[in-house]
Amino acid sequence: MFGEQRPAQTVVSAALWALGQQLRRLHDTPGVQSPSSSTTAALRHVLTELLTKHEQLQRDFYAAAAAAAADPGSWESLTGNLQRAGQLLGPQLLQQAQELAEGVCAALPLHHCCNNPRCLNLGGLSEAALVAGAGSRCSGCRASYYCSRECQLAAWRLHKPVCKRLQAAASR
């Protein structure tokens, strides 16, 4: 895109592209696009906001890369700044990505797998058993399933606000 790409530029460009693809996939998921609840509306709003920020980040990156290509001496400075920013922001971005994933898992309860986003149980109930009702089900919203009571308790902090919204939506 800018002539010869440097390795760091290639990695950042690929990461930005992949992030955009994932955000678009999440945004276009049928469950997110259905107007069924305030939870999905809130999630849709957040994803739209993230897509807008992603587009701005991409524009800024390409502008910086073009400026660096025009002045080869500035590339070393840009690379150093990117490395320092990555060291500082990497853990924070990872934490934010994990929180987003947990929020999506909590906001979109699934009937065919454990709804605890941190479930590591690979030897317990199968998805078929969960669908058949052999697992633990939230008694409040009746929409979230868990492979065990332990997973249900572990996920309660994330599920509690979603559970209240699901109960309110069901009572309308």
TrEMBL record:
Enzyme Commission number(s): 2.7.1.182
GO molecular function annotations of the record: phytol kinase activity; zinc ion binding
Claim: Cytoplasm is one of the keywords in the record: no
Superkingdom assignment: Eukaryota
Primary residence: plastid
Membrane topology: Multi-pass membrane protein
Keyword Transit peptide part of the UniProt annotation: yes
Catalytic activities: phytol + CTP = phytyl phosphate + CDP + H(+)
Functional pathway: Cofactor biosynthesis; tocopherol biosynthesis
Keywords from the named record: Chloroplast, Kinase, Membrane, Metal-binding, Plastid, Transferase, Transit peptide, Transmembrane, Transmembrane helix, Zinc, Zinc-finger
Xref: SUPFAM superfamilies: HIT/MYND zinc finger-like
Annotated Gene Ontology cellular component terms: chloroplast; membrane
Cited Gene3D superfamilies: 6.10.140.2220
Boundaries of every MYND-type domain copy: 119-163
Family membership: Belongs to the polyprenol kinase family.
PANTHER family: DOLICHOL KINASE, PHYTOL KINASE 1, CHLOROPLASTIC
Record-given protein name: phytol kinase
Lineage: Eukaryota, Viridiplantae, Chlorophyta, core chlorophytes, Chlorophyceae
